[in-house]
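Researcher: Please translate sequence to structure tokens.
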Amino acid sequence: MLTLIPPQSPGEWLAWASAIVTIGFGLICLIMPRTTFRILRLQARPGVPEALSESRATMAGFYLATGLLAIAFAQPFVWMVLGAGWAFTALGRLVSIIADDGNTTFNWVSIAMEIALAAAPLAYAFGIVR
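Model: Translation complete:
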């Protein structure tokens, strides 16, 4: 039986916080895809329901699964996956800032948040914060 053990140390709280934010993003993508697109500055074309399914499926599914399983299993390698996912998200945004002339406030705020969401579980997984 899977037992959910709450965080016991500051490092675990950091990792959990990243997972909870990830789950929150997943829920927003699942329940409110139009809001998700507005936040991300995207627009679905009328008559194309596949666009909304991308938010509900691809984005929400990945965020929810990663966040929920990180909390459920609470193992160093799973925390590394969560942290690496956010780190590569930040890397992709940095490439976009450089290559796509994306030097906007939205991108810099987003990359700062993504780095923080990556650092929290990675710091715990690598024993930097216990």
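Researcher: Any highlights?
Model: The chain has five helices and no strands.
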